[in-house]
Structures are given as structure tokens and as C-alpha cells.
Amino acid sequence: MTDGLAWIGEHWYSGAIASSGMLSDISLTAVRGVDPVDFVVRLGADRRMAERPTLFKDFDRLSVDPGDSVAMFGRSGEWSYVVEVERSTWHLVFLDRLGQDTLVEQGDELICLDRFLHEHPWVCYVDTAGEVGSGEPGDSLLESAVPPGGRPGTLAALDAAMRTAGAVRDTFPGCDDPEDEDEELAKRLFTAVGDALGLSLPRREIELGLLPAVHLPSPV
Q: Which residue has the higher pLDDT, 62 or 152?
């Protein structure tokens, strides 16, 4: 796939409507080396439904509670991913459990880009050594509220890629209209994450709702 992630960043704040699928306000959570069905089951999905899913465009989204999520899921190379609108279930689990037992098992690598519509958008990266970096778009992962330990490894590499892409405020080149700054930072952030981690999501299938869907109950 060659779609990358930049297209998600371009529409993160745009309010663009995709009646059958998703385009704006997409939250992405991906973990490397885990089966997609196993990943959504970790997030609370029913395994039988996840193994025989319906397409997102055909899913009866009105049948689920307003606080729950109907997510698309799939595989991109070594990564399994979940895409949701407005908020990430994984992030809600993280908050509900105060950072403990966040569904990231030892040795897992995870990236979460959460639109978190009613709060500040959020990015979190967990590397295979268990180092965690998080913050708002424009923040450095190495200056996180959850500081990395003594061996930042791939966390530092991702932060460097974000800096090179101008996705960190002290390397952001600015834009002609200051009101466009959030949109430009989001585009640069998604581009850097996709390129650095080798993660690409199919725009057409997501926009048209052609990926399998699963019900994720709210953890809060």
C-alpha cells in the first residue's frame, strides 16, 4: 500500500464527512506483531464477532450504546490497527486504569494517535523495551509527561523523525496563516509516524467503510 498516513492528518480537523466510512476525526491505534483479531479482543471485542465481521458500511452502528465504539480493523505489514472516530478505546483504557495494564504486553510496540475530540488531541508511542512517550501534537516525545527511561532507543528515533518532518514545534517551519497551524502539524505528525514506523492505511477502504468492523464497549 502507498497511501501512508498523511491523508489522515490532512483531514484530522477538517470536518469532512464520509457517510459510509471515516475521513475526519480518525483515531488510530496500531500494535506491531499481534494478530488483528487478537488485538481487538484485547480491546473488548467479542472474538466470535471479530472472526466473522461485517463490513463497517453494513454495520448497524445505531445498535450500540453512544459511549461505545464501532471500529474498523486490519493489518498493514507487521502492524495490526484499529481506526475509530473521535476517540481511541485504547486511550480510554489507559486513562481508566491510570496507566496500568494498558493492553500493551511486554515486548509490544504500539502507536496511538487519538483525536480525543472533547479534550486535546494526543499521541503516544510505546517501544518494545516498554519506554513510553506521549503528548499533544507538536510536543517532543522525549519531553513527555510520561518520561522515557535511560534507553530511549526507537522512541528517540521516532522523535527524531518527527523533528525532521517539522512535526515538533521547535522544528515546525510555520505556515502562511497561523489558523492553519494545527492542521499542518497534524499532517506532518501523521507523515512522520507512517514513514518512520512503516505504517500505511488504505484511504479508499476506510473512507468507503470497506474494512471489517467490530463493536468495542467503552471501558469507562
A: 62
> Cell numbers at residue 10, please?
490532512
Q: Yes or no: say if 110 and 126 are a contact pair by the CB < 8 Å rule.
A: yes
Q: Where are the alpha helices (DSSP H) in 115-202?
A: 154-164, 181-197
Instruction: Map grid coordinates 512503516 to a residue.
Output: 198
The mean pLDDT value of the chain amounts to 91
End-to-end CA distance of the chain: 35
Compute the distance between CA of residue 71 and CA of residue 60 in angstroms, rounded to an integer. Answer: 12
Q: Pull the grid cell for residue 141.
A: 516525545
* Three cell numbers, residue 188: 506532518
What phi-psi label fits residue 53: left (phi over 0), alpha (psi between -120 and 50 degrees) or beta?
beta
CA dist list (Å): 212 to 16, 66, 71, 122, 130? 22, 20, 8, 25, 30
C-alpha cell at 62: 445505531
Nearest to 8 by CA among 175, 187, 163: 187
DSSP state of 83: E
Cell of 56: 463497517
pLDDT in tens, 14-36: 888 888 999 999 999 999 999 99
Q: How many helices (H) and strands (E) does the chain have?
A: 7, 7
Predicted structure pTM score: 0.93
Residue 81: CA count within 13 A, CB half-sphere: 26
